[in-house]
Amino acid sequence: MSENTTHAPQENAEKDPSPTVTGDEPMTGPQRSYLNTLAQEAGAEIPDEATKAQASELIDTL
Predict the structure, then answer these.
(1) 59: nearest Cα among 37, 5, 10
(2) Which of 19, 31, 58, 62 has the fewest other C-beta atoms within 10 Å?
(3) What share of the chain is helix, strand, coil (3-state, %, to 5)?
(4) CB 51 within 8 A of CB 24
(5) pLDDT per residue over 35-45, tens digit each?
(6) Rounded CA gap, 55 and 47, in Å?
(7) Residue pair 54/15 in contact by the 8 Å Cβ criterion
(8) How many CB atoms within 10 Å of residue 19?
(9) What stretches of the chain show up as alpha helix (H) in DSSP?
(10) Mean pLDDT of 26-34
(11) pLDDT at 28 over 80
């Protein structure tokens, strides 16, 4: 016989971006492009020299 087991989905599967990205590196091209789109839609401005970590936080915020 085989057992059917189900696993509950992991809670809080989304990781905190701060420890997973190198905070001192400049944001990537795709991050800049996506942020520009989000900022334009939200009527916000993004800093030119944002880091990867800052860009990730801004994406979540916008």
Answers:
(1) 37
(2) 19
(3) 45, 5, 50
(4) yes
(5) 999 999 999 99
(6) 9
(7) no
(8) 8
(9) 17-20, 29-42, 52-61
(10) 96
(11) yes
